[in-house]
């Protein structure tokens, strides 16, 4: 599945022209109070690709993910970030950045599906209504938006006859798909996923991974996972982090078959985790 | 092999003793409530009628009904609600959703807890100084209701804050991650899910305000008034003060009327509390996550 990335075998991390990069993290360090969680991390994610972030618990992969849409900052001044994070070539840490705009472009999916306690339809339209409250949409327009988004996440056929049902009553798999669907109407460039299948059973995990491949191309996906088999199956490139540092970032195939660093080899062989 | 040992037997006896003890305490808790209600119904029940509720008291309350105090208490409670609910709910939203976790927030929370512990007679004296004298509202519904409002603010704030905090954090994060502001998140997701708890707090406030005597006796409630108030700057009679007066200041007061008045007052409070519970059960049935 990762054949498209076959061309970039070699140097780690792969260098590319800035124009193709959806996410370009350079020399990012991050502190929670006095605790340094990230040490001069670099990460380049090609537009339209799926990149997996792996590493043992506490290695900083979720922190890195959460700094891309700056959701870390809800903790207040306590969090301090240095370095540069660019999304589609624009600095997200710059002064003039509006967080609402940033989060519209950079959506996020969480470990536990977190649909809002509203109907399925209202969940899909939630972000759309937030960001386009100054425009008029007819009911027919909205219906179309809902259908398109739910079709894109392969959920439409399952729920089309019960769009008024509470989203929190759906199965976890359907909830997680819905959480992806509600990002789509505002046309994000990047979707961040923080262990999106860890609450799901193996069958649901498989469907969700299938969905990732469907979404790839139109959206750039950065996914944190604990599950190395998942990283192998569901990503084109994999970045391995350890103790707040980026250890190795290569095509998924290369990283798993011929890891360059000893730490990577130890981790993927399950010697720690 | 599985026969009880001496130790098992002893454990079982001790278990029985503790279970009986805790059960007894629970019964003791309920007994006073039942006795009070029973006595009031037995002695005051015959006095309470439609006529009793809607006839003005005459002969210092020895005859007639309780129209003026009943309507007066409704005035006091409604004006107190209008003053305290917006302030209390807004303050709770700030404390729960916006305030950073620092010493100032902790100090404010401490102040709220202390406000709840201030004796009602102290609130009454504050009310006299602040509303009756300084703001020149005089002995009036407004002064009494504002005093009640300050006294019951902690109830509203604490109930609101707790019901806001019961809304799972995941919903807020989901909203923020879609670019919603704090206020958009509060309005669309947090408040709709917290409303049952907030209303419970409001109803508790109503029942507490309706029963209080001290805060209103110097600020707005008077012992006898032959007419109904027509505005908030007038004094009024009130159920609690009326009961106090006819119980200890009016000689030859028929027992029936005293007990009847108490029965109406306690019924108002119990009905409000029951309504609050029923409402909460209803809303809880509707919300699922």
Could you give the count of β-strands of chain B? Answer: 2
Beta percentage of chain A is: 15-25%
Runs of chain A in which pLDDT lies below 50 for 5 or more consecutive residues are 1-12
Helix content of chain A: 25-40%
CATH fold-level topology of chain B: MetI-like fold
- Helix residue percentage of chain B: over 70%
Unreliable residue runs of chain B: none
N-to-C SSE string of chain B, H for helix and E for strand: HHEEHHHHHHHHH
N→C terminal distance of chain A: 26 Å
Residue-averaged pLDDT of chain A, rounded?
86
Order of helices and strands of chain A: EEEHEEHEHHHHEHEHEEHH
Number of helices of chain B: 11
TL;DR?
The complex is a heterodimer of chains A (273) and B (289). With 273 residues, chain A is of the alpha/beta class.
List its traits.
heterodimer, A: 273 residues, alpha/beta, Rossmann fold, six-stranded mixed sheet, four-stranded antiparallel sheet, 10 strands, disordered N terminus, B: 289 residues, mainly alpha, MetI-like fold, two-stranded antiparallel ribbon, 11 helices, globular
Structure report:
The complex is a heterodimer of chains A (273) and B (289). Chain A has 273 residues and is an alpha/beta fold. In chain A, the strands form two sheets. Chain A has a six-stranded mixed sheet with strand order 6-7-8-3-9-10, sandwiched between helices. Chain A has a four-stranded antiparallel sheet with strand order 2-1-4-5, with helices on one face. With 289 residues, chain B is an all-alpha fold. Chain B has a single domain, classed as MetI-like (MetI-like fold), CATH 1.10.3720.10. In chain B, a hairpin with a 4-residue loop joins strand 1 and strand 2. In chain B, helix 1 packs across helix 11 and helix 10 runs antiparallel to helix 11. Chain B is globular, with a radius of gyration of 24 Å. Classes of the chains: A alpha/beta (273), B mainly alpha (289).
